[in-house]
Structure formats: structure tokens, C-alpha cells
Amino acid sequence: METIQFEIESAKSQIDWTGRKVTGAHNGTIGIKEGNFILNDGKIIGGNIVINTASIKILDVTDAATNQQFAGHLASDDFFSIEKFPTASFTISNTRQLTANTYYLEGNLTIKDITHLTGFEVTVEENTENALSLKGKLVIDRTKYDIKFRSGNFFKDLGDTLIYNDFDLDFTITAQTSKN
User: Fold this and answer.
1) Which residue from 14, 37, 51, 74 could staple onto 88, CB 3.0 to 4.6 Å apart?
2) How would you classify residue 168: left for phi > 0, otherwise alpha for psi between -120 and 50, otherwise beta?
3) Cβ atoms of 105 and 95 closer than 8 Å
4) Could you give the dihedral angle defined by the CA atoms of residues 45, 7, 90 and 31, in that order, rounded to the nearest 10 degrees?
5) What are phi and psi of 43, to 5 degrees?
6) Maximum C-alpha span of the chain
7) What structural domains does the chain harbor?
8) Measured between alpha carbons, how far is residue 49 from residues 31, 93, 107 in Å?
9) Burial of 162 by CB count in 10 Å (0-12 exposed, 13-18 middle, 19+ buried)?
10) How much is the pLDDT for 76?
11) Locate the Lipid/polyisoprenoid-binding YceI-like domain: which residues (predicted)?
């Protein structure tokens, strides 16, 4: 049984985020700073993903001034406190193979230095000697990470300004090993 580490290729990996509110939704992208997956005998056994919170982009707001204002708000203490916490991370602590190409990854998700155990399914799109590609979706309750702005759990009478607690991260990650 051979253990191989695959390094995430940030430029070939993508995370799309979606946040919902009563009156609609917003979406965008956020970048991966670095990370890896550890495979033993071709099966995922561990890994780590570090997200660059300062790379968050909003795609659905096309007015430049409004987009800049919204991005500044996401960077503020109301949301991700990017100046204090420039990264978020997920460290795999346990894996379970569900089918030949589907895994359940469980681990510690850290946002704003607050860590909670979470899990989600990933589908392996490619798994060769030198390359690994996978897709998945992680749904996060933002209030667990001290992101309470306009949450119905903490504020009353928000009406149509309420922002739902869950946000989605849909990701496609490509990683490679230097093994020849």
C-alpha cells in the first residue's frame, strides 16, 4: 500500500459560493490558497484545504460601486473579518468510501478562528497516478462562525432584509503529485 500526497492546484480549482436572503440570492467565487489530499492505495485518507478569504468575489452585482461596497461588507466584521482572518480551512479527520468514486469527508472547518466538525460528500472525477480531481458541495451555517448579520436567530423583525443562515460552497478541485 502506497501513500501519495496530491497538492491542490489553486489556478485549476474553483469554489463557487451562494448566499440566500428572503428577496433572492447572491453568488460569487472564492479562491483556494493551498492544500493537499493524501491517498493510500488510491483511496482518500486525509488532507487539508486553505481558503483565501480575501479573494472573495461577487459575480451577480454588476454595478462597480455597489459591488465594491458589498465586497467591503463581506470583508468586514459583520461577515468574514478578512483583515483579522485572511484564511479559512478544512482539515480532513475521517473519510468513508461510499461508492467506487464517492467519499464522505469529515473534518474540522475553521472560519474566523472558530472550528466545528462537519462533513460532506465528494465525487472523484479523476484519480490517476499523477492527478486527482473532485467535486462536492459544502453547506455551512454561518452563525456557527460568528457571522450573525441579519440572521433570524439573533435579530427580530427583519422582514425582507433577513439573510438565511446557510450558504453553499460548490467546489471543483484539481490536485497533482510530482511523482513520475
Assistant:
1) 51
2) beta
3) yes
4) -150
5) -115, 140
6) 60
7) 3-176 (2.40.128.110)
8) 11, 12, 11
9) middle
10) 80
11) 5-176
* 95 neighbors 65 (Cβ within 8 angstroms): no
State the Cα–Cα distance between residues 42 and 44, nearest whole angstrom.
7
* pLDDT band (50, 70, 90) for residue 165: low
Compute the distance between CA of residue 65 and CA of residue 176 in angstroms, rounded to an integer.
39
Amino acid 128 reads T
Beta carbons of 169 and 140 less than 8 angstroms apart: yes
CA 137 – CA 174 distance, rounded (Å): 15
**What would the grid cell of residue 21 be?**
436572503
